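tool_call: predict_structure(chain=1)
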Amino acid sequence: MPWIRRGLIFSLAAAVPAIGEPDIALVDGMLVDMRVEPGRPGGSTKLSLAQEIAAKQEAAAQMAEPRPPAPQERQRAQQLLQRVDARLAAGDWRMAFVEARDGLALDPNSLPLLSRAAVTSVQLREYSRADGYLARFLQLQPDNLHHISIRAGVLIRLGRIEEAEKLIERGMALNPEFVPLRIHRTTLRILQGRDAEDGDYWRRRTDEEWLVILRWLADDREILEKILGEPDYRRLTVSIVGETVVANLDELKNSLARALEHRAAKQPAAARAELENVIGAGLDVFGLRAAIAETLFQEGQVAESLGQWERLVGEYSNWAQAWLSRGYALLRAQRFDEALTSLRKALDLGPDEGVVKFAYACALALSGARMEAQGIFDKLIRTHRAQFRAWMESDPVLEKGVRSVVNAPMYLRALEIPPESE
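tool_result:
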């Protein structure tokens, strides 16, 4: 999680496979900008019978199993992919689509080209066409959460609510914490006259996730008001950010964006000033306060940083992530016995979470209980091998904990880490 800056993998949310290519489908922080220009029809309008038949025919044609491309066709498709990306960089959505479509004629199963054809179709407001490409993409890679989310948004704009709901629930089964899916599910709940998401879910989001949320509410206001109506858009917004924040969405979005830019530029004091502005305006949530704790740590104000974590675990005392994050901060501060206490509490609250077990084992090892730590590491290397290396390499203090036990060379060999690093 971002409040554990050196390890996004230190999150209780489930990991999701990616497609291995630059995922340009994640427009504007994983949310495709689906706004409709003034004077254009709203996205939630029901299709006519003729449009529905045409859309189904197009989707069926795209879903048909094509013959494998010849090597020269695949090479030419790869060249077109590069041209598509150049068009996207220049903001030429229409020509980007044309060249993505031409590339798919050569290599119909190319995931990057299917992704780009879908996204450009969305940007051009060709939602039925986008849905065909997204359906084909998900046929080839059914568990890709980013594209499940994009298709859910497209289905909502096409008025195909039941399909959108089923797709969202399928994605939620893969990762119930994934923000874009929660955004779409909340939109559907309001559209159906139901209660919005539990407020605790939104309060626990990270600073990066909050930027996605604020951009969605502020930048997509026009399309959301067309889908929901102005009163329900306001109800949606209040349910997520609270009454005091509604009037300042754009200002807070811009301030949080600047905070993240300062943080990326290693300017913690400037980042903290922006974060404090956002919190002062009423968006007092875990992720922003955790980000402040991190900026304080980066500035060398370790006691103040740990004090912030102490207040956070007091407020979020029944949440394993809060104790995990505090324990990690204490490990970085070389306060191993205190870290062990915090991580034991995280383990009590999240006994099945591999990342909590790993951090707890590191704290054990660093506090001298190496044999007990090794017993936990021995199990994790078997059950969580894919994550073990990422956890270990996310911070030198965690790697030190792993390497301090007798079986460390065995772990490194199992993880295919070169012998010279042992």
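agent: Confidence is low (pLDDT under 50) at residues 1-9, 14-47. Proceeding to next step.
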